[in-house]
């Protein structure tokens, strides 16, 4: 048996440990093991130091390439606008697409970045670049902002996950090459809460503790004999899972605790419920929550498809910003809305817009941002003409708000150096 275990690869050992623990404990949970590879200790000292203006982030990702000209990158009167009209907002001089009336009421707290540009024009590559500041490179999987935040500053609530991703994207970069402790919890359905997080009714507390102790004793020899980081990480993942199970803050995942009025304000559907869950989670100390809204890949019939997608976004987003402000959370919560790229200024032959990484828009609310402003300009949404912002610059701005050291170097298991936003420079003028 010992010879067999020595000859197993890492995945086989991991599966073995998982199945044994699952059988002994009578519970199951989503594996939080990282891919192979761990960050080396911090090196150097940060030259770019800043005081954090945000304690937490709610990151709203518009998957598929949100059309900038029809939403936040409007150019009133331009022929590139198609049939979309603009509306005034709560911020003087700031206009957005007419399909976002609830969001328009929040723009006095927002900064619109209209000069974003990306080097990646395909969905998978653009998505990855937007989340990590790095392009896809062989087997290296780079950490996303939630993982960097936890790596540098730890958890907000030690009993809950450090970051939560509400998405159906199984290829989300997550914690990248960081250790298991920095991996996010991924939820597919926010309305169902955190599944498999309660002790089975047929298992008494004393029996559960007995199984935990037995598992620990059985695992002790295994860990001593096979001192692999992933084996140790698996044990730590189980300890974290049990802390969550026994935490009083587990109710943070239970949307049934919210009133019917609140549910009606946010709306139905995964994105609306995800935004509501995000508010509950940040209230309970989770410092980074991402919520995904797909369906923006509109190569055909954009005029017919856009109202429904904007309607889903507008109701939930407007409710989220209003709710955070009402609860006194918006001042130190950075709400970010972004996408992998924009869509072509020219309507195509199928009455849609195609991929367009040359110029697109994103928005930030709260978290120290000086609201009611537009940063950057384009020529009718076609070319960036003022204050060009790269994807790493955009991510560096988020990191800057969180007080993360932008030039501190960490190493992957392959000894390659990485920083939180590559060579990106923050847009410091956005902050009040």
Keywords:
globular; 11 helices; 432 residues; two-stranded antiparallel ribbon; Alkaline_phosphatase_core_sf; single chain; DUF1501 domain-containing protein; nine-stranded mixed sheet; DUF1501; alpha/beta
Can you describe what's shown?
A hairpin with a 5-residue loop joins strand 16 and strand 17. The chain has helices at residues 2-7, 10-25, 101-104, 123-132, 145-153, 205-225, 229-245, 260-266, 269-283, 302-326, 391-402, and strands spanning 56-62, 86-88, 95-97, 110-117, 163-166, 185-187, 288-293, 333-339, 342-343, 355-356, 360-366, 373-375, 377-378, 384-386, 389-390, 410-411, 417-418. Helix 2 runs antiparallel to helix 6 and helix 9 (269-283) runs parallel beside helix 10 (302-326). Strands 1, 4, 5, 6, 7, 8, 11, 12 and 15 form a nine-stranded mixed beta sheet that branches. The protein has a two-stranded antiparallel sheet with strand order 2-3. It has a two-stranded antiparallel ribbon with strand order 9-10. It has two domains: 1-30 and 204-246, no CATH class; 42-191 and 257-430, Alkaline Phosphatase, subunit A (3-Layer(aba) Sandwich), CATH 3.40.720.10. The protein is an alpha/beta fold and 432 residues long. Residues 1-47 have low confidence and may be disordered. It has eleven helices and 17 strands.
């Amino acid at each position: 048996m010992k010879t067999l275990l020595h000859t197993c690869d890492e995945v086989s050992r991991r599966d073995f440990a998982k199945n044994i623990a699952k059988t002994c404990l009578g519970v199951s949970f989503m594996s939080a093991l990282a891919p192979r590879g761990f960050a080396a200790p911090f090196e150097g000292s940060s030259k770019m130091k800043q005081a954090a203006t945000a304690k937490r982030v709610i990151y709203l990702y518009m998957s598929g390439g949100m059309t900038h000209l029809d939403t936040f990158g409007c150019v009133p009167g331009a022929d590139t606008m198609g049939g979309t009209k603009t509306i005034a907002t709560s911020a003087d001089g700031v206009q957005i697409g007419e399909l976002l009336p609830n969001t328009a009421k929040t723009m006095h707290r927002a900064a619109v970045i209209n000069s974003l540009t990306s080097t990646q024009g395909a969905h998978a590559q653009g998505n990855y670049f937007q989340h990590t500041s790095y392009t896809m490179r062989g087997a290296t999987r780079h950490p996303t902002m939630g993982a960097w935040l936890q790596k540098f500053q730890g958890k907000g609530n030690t009993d809950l996950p450090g970051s939560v991703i509400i998405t159906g994207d199984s290829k989300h970069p997550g914690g990248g090459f960081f250790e298991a402790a920095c991996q996010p919890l991924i939820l597919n359905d926010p309305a169902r809460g955190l599944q498999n997080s309660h002790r089975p009714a047929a298992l008494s507390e004393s029996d559960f503790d007995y199984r935990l102790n037995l598992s620990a004793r059985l695992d002790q020899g295994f860990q001593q004999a096979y001192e692999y980081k992933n084996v140790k990480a698996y044990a730590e993942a189980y300890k974290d899972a049990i802390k969550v199970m026994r935490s009083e803050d587990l109710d943070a995942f239970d949307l049934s605790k919210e009133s019917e009025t609140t549910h009606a304000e946010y709306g139905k559907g995964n994105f609306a419920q995800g935004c509501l869950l995000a508010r509950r989670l940040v209230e309970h100390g989770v410092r980074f929550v991402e919520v995904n809204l797909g369906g923006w890949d509109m190569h055909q019939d954009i005029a017919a498809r856009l109202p429904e997608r904007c309607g889903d976004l507008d109701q939930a987003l407007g409710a989220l910003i209003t709710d955070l402000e009402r609860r006194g959370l918006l001042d130190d919560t950075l709400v970010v809305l972004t996408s992998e790229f924009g869509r072509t200024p020219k309507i195509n032959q199928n009455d849609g817009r195609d991929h367009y990484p040359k110029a697109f828009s994103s928005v930030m609310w709260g978290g120290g941002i000086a609201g009611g402003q537009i940063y950057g300009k384009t020529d009718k949404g076609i070319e960036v003409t003022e204050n060009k912002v790269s994807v790493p610059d955009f991510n560096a701005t988020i990191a800057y708000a969180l007080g993360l050291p932008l030039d501190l170097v960490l190493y992957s298991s392959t000894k390659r150096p990485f920083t939180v936003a590559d060579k990106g420079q923050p847009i410091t003028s956005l902050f009040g």
